[in-house]
């Protein structure tokens, strides 16, 4: 079981939206996923309430519960646990970063977003966690994407997929679906599938590095 934490203090950057659609895409790729929601805003629990399809399982937890829940989940057959965090600094955020094998930091290509993730990044560095940015809600074509990509790739890993701002993301959530279910042939679905493929490769690399450390010990 590996854990992916969606984290950045910048509200509205797309943590919950990407968590949902990537969880659905991962399930479509044959993997078992559950979601831990640490945000009282309950975006994902609301989504699950509107959902008619099976899975992923969603549980609302707080900072005091995460260590116990993660210990229990490690005994299960889940391939992945996704952890969604609130858009404000909270006690849960640090524990969610600590629990992660990979932190995903969604970021819109705006000066405000590009500044706002710095405290999050400092916490990720402090806890020595692997992380990747995800450029989200980008215009379809703009110099801003290139500028933001150049800036972010200097600071850390950036997937080769950018998530464009598309209404499919908003509509899918309203229907209790991921974008790949809502409009399987759409561009939003293709981007999310591409992002999941990138993340899956990265998770395999992280697992291999972990196994290497164990072997060397
Ligand atoms: N790629 C996208 N295209 C269009 N709309 C998007 C996209 N990603 C997110 N959104 C929209 O942006 C808004 C904020 O997204 P979301 O709730 O996922 O952000 P968040 O980071 O979880 O916010 P918070 O910090 O408040 O929890 C939502 O209305 C969502 O539908
Ligand atoms: Mg959210």
Could you explain how this protein is built, in words?
The chain has 217 residues and is α/β, with parallel strands linked by helices. It has a single domain (2-216), classed as 3-Layer(aba) Sandwich (Rossmann fold). The chain has 10 helices and 7 strands. Strands 3-2-4-1-5-6-7 form a 7-stranded parallel beta sheet, sandwiched between helices. Helix 2 (43-49) links the parallel strand 2 (33-37) and strand 3 (57-60). Helix 1 (15-28) crosses helix 10. The longest helix is centred in the last third of the chain and has 30 residues, at 187-216. The protein is globular and about 45 Å long. It starts with a strand and ends with a helix. The model has no long low-confidence stretch (mean pLDDT 92). Bound molecules: adenosine-5'-triphosphate and magnesium ion.
CATH architecture: 3-Layer(aba) Sandwich
Indicate the mean pLDDT.
92
Distance between the termini: 21 Å
Whole-number count of domains: 1
- Tally the helices: what do you get? 10
Largest sheet: 7 strands, parallel
The unique ligands bound to this protein are: adenosine-5'-triphosphate, magnesium ion
Please give the CATH class.
Alpha Beta
Assign the CATH superfamily: P-loop containing nucleotide triphosphate hydrolases
Low-confidence stretches: none
β-strand number: 7
């Amino acid at each position: 079981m590996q854990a992916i934490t969606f984290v950045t203090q910048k509200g509205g950057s797309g943590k919950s939206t990407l968590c949902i659609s990537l969880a659905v895409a991962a399930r479509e790729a044959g993997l078992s996923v559950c979601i831990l929601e640490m945000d009282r805003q309950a975006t994902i629990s609301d989504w699950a309430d509107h959902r008619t399809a099976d899975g992923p399982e969603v549980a609302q937890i707080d900072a005091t519960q995460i260590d116990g829940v993660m210990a229990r989940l490690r005994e299960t057959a889940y391939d992945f646990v996704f952890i969604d965090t609130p858009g404000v600094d909270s006690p849960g955020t640090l524990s969610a970063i600590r629990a992660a094998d990979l932190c995903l930091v969604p970021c819109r290509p705006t000066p405000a977003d590009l500044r706002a993730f710095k405290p999050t990044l400092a916490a990720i560095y402090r806890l020595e966690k692997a992380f990747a940015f995800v450029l989200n809600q980008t215009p379809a074509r703009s110099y801003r994407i290139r500028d933001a990509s150049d800036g972010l790739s200097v600071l850390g890993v950036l997937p080769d997929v950018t998530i464009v701002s598309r209404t499919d993301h908003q509509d899918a959530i309203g229907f209790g679906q991921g974008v790949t279910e809502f409009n399987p042939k759409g561009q939003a679905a293709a981007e999310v599938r591409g992002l999941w493929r990138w993340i899956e490769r990265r998770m395999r690399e992280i697992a291999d590095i972990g196994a290497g450390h164990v072997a060397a010990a």
